[in-house]
Amino acid sequence: MALASPDAAAAVRVVGGWASPFVMRVCVALRLKGVPYEFLQEELGTKSRLLLASNPVHKKMPVLLHGSRPVCESLVILQYVDEAFAGATGSSPILPADPYDRAAHRFSADYADAKLPTPLRILRGMIGGDKAKAAEQVAVALARLEEVFVVECDGKGRRYFGGDDIEFLDIVLGSYVGWFRAAELVTGRPVLDEATAPRLAAWAARFCAHEAVRDVMPDAARLVEFGEALRAALAAHAARP
Ligand SMILES: N[C@@H](CCC(=O)N[C@@H](CS)C(=O)NCC(=O)O)C(=O)O
């Protein structure tokens, strides 16, 4: 039996945690669309029944609940938000209008998600691993994305990957900026700055100041504290008989 389709006005809730870049994407997208939402914060180191029931396949956050219907996986949610709230007041597009630009944004977003999270977790000390290798992996990925910015934005007078405003790739890559800063605090070494990737460094500052972003961009020092607390909570959980 098909579920009743909620209209765009049905309540919107985000199940997640403030420290997650994947969750932050969803909040930025909803803010960009001018869609009010309730944020349901998950407890550190545990998964709520609502999260497990809403995302039984991956058991990960974020989950977007539109009415009672769950949407999972941040990139899928971004597209859903773009389509479901296309007509919302003050609505800005999330995916570019041009199919080729859309494909290019998706390609680089997939690249960022494939290359960045694990080495950033290693640099932040949240999981074990070779820190020098992780730093090199992040540097290679950022150099590649810097090249994309130079070709797609500098060459065309764009402030963001999306042009005059943030769009899909800005939201996806921008969600890692807090983690870059946290990795810098933990390692004492630059991850994204003027010297490593000058165009992206300037873009990151613009992204963080954007009105849809500034209230949900996590503070780096808080992220470091959160990483330590999460690691301790998971270790305590693993040590239980
Ligand atoms: N590909 C997923 C990744 C989501 C993800 O890794 N979420 C993390 C929080 S940052 C999570 O829920 N981790 C719990 C787990 O791995 O069990 C997405 O884009 O939504």
From TrEMBL:
One of its GO terms (cellular component) is cytoplasm. Keywords: Transferase. Residues 10-89 form the GST N-terminal domain. One of its GO terms (biological process) is toxin catabolic process. It comes from the Eukaryota. CDD domains: GST_C_Tau, GST_N_Tau. Its EC number is 2.5.1.18. Belongs to the GST superfamily. Tau family. It holds the Pfam family GST_N. This is glutathione transferase. It catalyses: RX + glutathione = an S-substituted glutathione + a halide anion + H(+). Residues 98-226 form the GST C-terminal domain. One of its GO terms (molecular function) is glutathione transferase activity.
